[in-house]
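REQUEST ID: PR-0412
SUBMITTED BY: lab tech R.K.
PRIORITY: routine
TASK: structure prediction, single protein chain
INPUT:
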Amino acid sequence: MSPRLNLYALAQKPLEQLLALEKYLTDSGLEHGLLHLVKMRASQINGCAYCLHMHSADALKAGEDPKRLFLLDAWRESSLYSPRERAALGWTEALTRVAETHAPDEDFQALKPHFSDQQIADLTLAIGLINTWNRLAIGLRSEHPKDKPARETAAA
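STATUS: complete
OUTPUT:
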């Protein structure tokens, strides 16, 4: 696949607004590790290679345990995630698959013991934003950087 067009060249102003929202969310007080997990999980569901590449690199650089990234698709069956993270991941899945789930009350209520109303609002914005980025990257066929495969790196 090759990119369809350069959105960054064609829509600079709106993209600046999306990046301003990213900055707000980074500074919102939600844990950066939690935001990495949310971005990764939504990107897994949507099949966005560009965003998975970016956010896995960001998470690892920030010190995330690689095992937690490897097992993220099976977070419900793993003990590696806190109750707070589980609530956020459930909400991420519900909103990412909103056409199927219609954002169930149970998933929303699961947030209440772990997040303030402000944090729920910010988390919901974060989930909406990563889904927007996924749709832009997938729709316009954005290509992630081409890293060397592990076997080539090991042989070097």
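NOTES: The mean pLDDT is 93.
REVIEWED BY: pending
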